[in-house]
């Protein structure tokens, strides 16, 4: 309890700090170059310093947030929708087809998303759509497996059988009786997986599979910082700390307080 009470103001302060940084950065131009201020350290004019082209790191960090977080959010939403649809069908219907789909899911869930993204990048070229597609191609599998197990567990419950006895169609039974009991757990899984998705998006951007330059995507910023680690360490620290801050905030949001009843 004491740890939770202590963590709340910490997360609140971190949230305020992240919001202030983003707002301040949005007021600046992330593409404006200044060759007289190349690799300048943090100062009043450039609070997070400048990069190798004299661009303001704070501006690039703020304008890159929608690219990184947006790609992770879009991939998560599509993964949830596909996973709920497939898992709902297999868990509700059963039979040989459901067994086959479950076997394919169990095999495919072991595929690392980075490897899938690299293959997708080689086929479709780097870009935001390729990045999201790569994440969704494996991201829906855990949701499908979870929904399938939960739907199979609740389909024999009395309220489900009551709806079936009243003549409700299988689709209506699934939508009205089954999914409302399943979706809270799906939401919890989504919150847990979002920080990892953000980390994966940044990693793929670092590998050059995200939006191409001069995009200020956080992973691309990390890649650009490699050549200046000794002379300009702030180029690495700014996007790295941004990713860690967002992950910390989301991890705090995803915690639940389990109390005995």
From TrEMBL:
<feature type="transmembrane region" description="Helical">
    <location>
        <begin position="99"/>
        <end position="123"/>
    </location>
</feature>
<feature type="domain" description="ABC transmembrane type-1">
    <location>
        <begin position="65"/>
        <end position="250"/>
    </location>
</feature>
<keyword id="KW-1133">Transmembrane helix</keyword>
<feature type="transmembrane region" description="Helical">
    <location>
        <begin position="231"/>
        <end position="251"/>
    </location>
</feature>
<comment type="similarity">
    <text>Belongs to the binding-protein-dependent transport system permease family.</text>
</comment>
<feature type="transmembrane region" description="Helical">
    <location>
        <begin position="12"/>
        <end position="29"/>
    </location>
</feature>
<keyword id="KW-0472">Membrane</keyword>
<dbReference type="GO" id="GO:0055085">
    <property type="term" value="P:transmembrane transport"/>
</dbReference>
<keyword id="KW-0812">Transmembrane</keyword>
<dbReference type="Pfam" id="PF00528">
    <property type="entry name" value="BPD_transp_1"/>
</dbReference>
<dbReference type="InterPro" id="IPR000515">
    <property type="entry name" value="MetI-like"/>
</dbReference>
<dbReference type="InterPro" id="IPR035906">
    <property type="entry name" value="MetI-like_sf"/>
</dbReference>
<feature type="transmembrane region" description="Helical">
    <location>
        <begin position="129"/>
        <end position="145"/>
    </location>
</feature>
<feature type="transmembrane region" description="Helical">
    <location>
        <begin position="182"/>
        <end position="211"/>
    </location>
</feature>
<dbReference type="InterPro" id="IPR050366">
    <property type="entry name" value="BP-dependent_transpt_permease"/>
</dbReference>
<feature type="transmembrane region" description="Helical">
    <location>
        <begin position="67"/>
        <end position="87"/>
    </location>
</feature>
<dbReference type="GO" id="GO:0005886">
    <property type="term" value="C:plasma membrane"/>
</dbReference>
<protein>
    <submittedName>
        <fullName>ABC transporter permease</fullName>
    </submittedName>
</protein>
<keyword id="KW-1003">Cell membrane</keyword>
<keyword id="KW-0813">Transport</keyword>
